[in-house]
Each structure stands twice: as structure tokens, then as C-alpha cells.
Design a protein that fits this description.
The complex is a heterodimer. By secondary structure, chain A is mostly beta strands. In chain A, strands 2, 4, 5, 6, 9, 10 and 11 form a 7-stranded mixed sheet that branches. Chain A starts with a strand and ends with a strand. In chain B, strands 2, 4, 5, 9, 10 and 11 form a 6-stranded mixed sheet that branches. Chain B has a 5-stranded antiparallel sheet with strand order 1-3-8-7-6, with no helix packed on it. Classes of the chains: A mainly beta, B mainly beta.
């Protein structure tokens, strides 16, 4: 069964460093998303991406964040200068045209 | 605008029923329901596209009142495996813009 894959599963980084979280969406899906979940809290929308550009973004998704689809299969989230409060589980998801979102297993980011 | 879910938490004994509600102040294209087990990614349960639509599989069903922008998830004769956090996701569209936003979740605990 097709699935969304994310790498790495766990990333530890020092405050101020840049991190890139990687995702391989399901191959025929057109919409891609990043969500964040701080431990014990709700799943928060960061950004949606369609047709090689950002479709929607939340107030959390400030200039520190960027997304890219560098090739036909990968979808990345870059956090330029990490802060302690960026520590969270980051989920990538993909969907067909307005269908259900399928989530990857997440990348746990720990900023120290 | 994120949807509002209620209640925040429910504790059941096996075999009991529960209803989880989700409401939005924004005009919606559809409502999604997901379940997240502790430490795992959210998993899609069902999507409701039309006003007044009801859907279900097994003993989990949902309704969507498009006029009221409300959806309810019904869990009947609950099983231990139903335990987890249930999120509603509200889908909004505007032109080519698209956003899937989740509520804060309802923690469901089913005890033997």
C-alpha cells in the first residue's frame, strides 16, 4: 500500500542551526502539507502546497520556514534558525484532489 | 479558523457509546475525521462532503450539517481499540487555495 515516508525519524539540533525535514508523498497525490504537533497538544497546520507553490500557510509559518519540492518525489520543510519552541513532531501529509490526507510517521525535532 | 471540538475528553467502558462534535465558523467544503494513537501519526477515518451526509464503517459513523457547519462522530458499542485522540479536520477552499485545519482533538479512553 502506498505511504508517505519521512526522514529522519528523529533529529536533534542546536538552537540557531538550520534543519531540513524530508518527505516523500504518495506518488499520484497533488496536495502536500506540513503539520506540527507539540508534545501533548493538537495537530497544527503549517502550510499546504499545490502546483509547485504554497497554497495556504498559517501564522506559525513565518520567514523562518520554507518549503520546496526539489524534484518529482521529495517535499522538504526547512527551518532556518531553530528555536527551542520549534521542538515538536512534524508530520508531512499528502492527498489527491481534495481527498483524505495521508500522514507520514513524523519527524521528532528536538532543539537543544 | 480552526474548528472547535467537544468534549475535550471522554472516558468510556467497553460497549458504551460516545459522540464527538466539531463546529466551524467558516463555510466548509468538507469535514474529515482522523484518529491518532499515542506516538503515532493521525489516521484517516472518513470524509463527509455533502450537507446532511452521513457515513460510517463498522460501529463508527459521522454526520455533517452543512448549514450549521457542524459535524458529529458517533462511536457505538465502543471497543478497547477505539482509544485514541480524535481530530476533526475542516476543509476550506477558495479559488486555488486549500486548507485542511484540525481541531484540538478529543481524547477517548475506553476501559475494560
Amino acid at each position: 500500500e502506498p505511504e508517505v515516508t519521512q526522514t529522519p525519524s528523529h533529529q536533534v539540533t542546536q538552537m540557531g542551526q538550520e534543519v531540513i525535514l524530508r518527505c516523500v508523498p504518495i506518488s499520484n497525490h497533488l496536495y502536500f502539507y506540513w503539520y506540527r504537533q507539540i508534545l501533548g497538544q493538537k495537530v497544527e497546520f503549517l502550510v499546504s502546497f499545490y502546483n509547485n507553490e504554497i497554497s495556504e500557510k498559517s501564522e506559525i509559518f513565518d520567514d523562518q520556514f520554507s518549503v520546496e519540492r526539489p524534484d518529482g518525489s521529495n517535499f522538504t520543510l526547512k527551518i532556518r534558525s531553530t528555536k527551542l519552541e520549534d521542538s515538536a513532531m512534524y508530520f508531512c501529509a499528502s492527498s489527491e484532489m481534495a481527498g483524505p490526507a495521508f500522514f507520514g510517521q513524523g519527524t521528532r525535532l528536538t532543539v537543544v | 479558523q480552526q474548528p472547535v471540538q467537544s468534549p475535550q475528553a471522554v472516558i468510556l467502558r467497553e460497549g458504551e457509546d460516545a459522540v464527538i462534535n466539531c463546529s466551524s465558523s467558516k463555510a466548509l467544503y468538507s469535514v474529515h475525521w482522523y484518529r491518532q494513537k499515542h506516538g503515532e501519526a493521525p489516521v484517516f477515518l472518513m470524509i463527509l462532503l455533502k450537507g446532511g451526509e452521513q457515513k460510517g464503517h463498522d460501529k463508527i459513523s459521522a454526520s455533517f450539517n452543512e448549514k450549521k457547519q457542524q459535524s458529529s462522530l458517533y462511536l457505538t458499542a465502543s471497543q478497547l481499540s477505539y482509544s485514541g485522540t480524535y481530530f476533526c479536520g475542516t476543509e476550506w477552499r477558495g479559488g486555488s487555495n486549500y486548507k485542511l485545519t484540525f481541531g484540538k482533538g478529543t481524547l477517548l479512553t475506553v476501559n475494560p
